[in-house]
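Q: Convert this sequence to structure tokens.
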Amino acid sequence: MIVRNEDVEELIMEIPEGHKHVRTTIIFNDGTEMTFQEATIANLVRAYIKVKTHPVLNKIILKGIKITDRKEGYAEWQLLE
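A:
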């Protein structure tokens, strides 16, 4: 699936009432909606910046890993290189 700018009707980034973290919802022209948690968008941005600014790197792969021994406040599932 390739998402083009012209496929997106609206993008909403907000901290919903009663929440602490950002949620990002993309609403497509066909009415489909996708909502991303803050950690997912943060990882996407981190990967984008690394590939875009690195002098020779042209690809990065992040994989979903379940972390059992983690710092307080961190999610159980992380996207890691």
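The helical segments are 38-53.
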